[in-house]
Amino acid sequence: MWGLRNIPSGDKPLPGGYAMMAGLTTRAKIALNAALLGLGSFGLFVWNITRPATIYFDEVHYVPAARALLERTAPTNIEHPLFAKTLIAAGIALFGDNPLGWRLPSALFACVAVLAVFWIGMLLFGELRSASCAALLLVFNQTHFIQARIGMLEMPMTGCLLLGAACLLQARRGSVRWAYAGAVALGLAVGSKWLAIPYVALFLAARAWEQWRDSGRDEAHLIDHILPDAARLGALAVLVYLASFAPAFFYTHDAMTLRHLIGFQFEMLASQRSPLASHPYQSDWWQWPLMLRPIWYLFAQNANNYQAILLIGNPLIYWGGAGVVALSLSGWLKRRDGVLLGLVGLYLFSLAIWIVIPKQIGFFYYYNFSAVILCLVLVAFLRLFDAKRLRLVIWFTLASAIAFAYFYPIIAADPLPKDDTWTEWVWMKSWY
Asked: Distance (Å, rounded) from C-alpha 423 to C-alpha 110?
């Protein structure tokens, strides 16, 4: 993991290396950073994760579905696949039918996402400082933090999708085993939420295109090796996805059967296309990068205080990232950086999904994965101006941490003394 075989193992520090770890080899530094990021982010995500003590927001859909899996009663919430709900059920089985059981799987996979971004950063940037800052930006990306502390489907999907991408990137260095590991992770991502499907198709297509380019665009190699490889990886992802429905075979009523498994996919699709009533928090894709319509996940009175959770992004990451994308597309940058352009392309793809998909209504949390990509986009951009050791990446990460700390009370359900205290964090009318 972390591409250790492809990074020198000597004692020479990486560019901008850390004085505190001067005595460590490069591999040890990478392992130590990964451990600190994993433990630190998991600790942050689970701190007071049981607030609020009751089901809130979309937990109302997914916790009952997880209970139905445990009790083997009947299919519930059939518009979404089972893997993420199975994880919630496992949390309940291990830690009880309580907030910790409902939300711990999200915290765990949010941590997986942080480590996967670190891994991707090492593979793309080849430098420890940049990879670590990309992962930290994800930690301080407030929407990721909030989704890490609620029993929903987003974090298992996000964690598996990023893990799959990291494995496929690692496979570029010569080991096909990483590609198959990536296909398994991508299958589980789709098994969490169908939103992963376009990304799976893109990642596998990108791998095939790169292999074809590296072969000198040899058509015979494309037909004999590259396309069969892509087909095998795609088939493995599909098989893993279908296997994620295994718990449904044990329902007492309307249990899944092998004959019904394929037909059930069309039932899920029909359920997702069911008419939806308008919602006060609905928004359009173009509003998400600007954070024009965030969502109040929670506002409740608790004893002598109030608790609130506003799904709002970190302004530095959201608005700064949108600005970087605009600059990258404007032609203002004289230096063409392939990594930056590739990440900007991935970000635009993530928005295009919502332009193309015929969704009746949209919500701000649909933008979560796009915001993950922005963390990598920002680091790729800031590195272009760091030739004089300005340490822009570090300073931007520190500023993002300060913004995260400022918003913390309103994203972590901290006790608020008065029912109007929340207005201190409301910057626009549309945030009400």
From this structure: 28
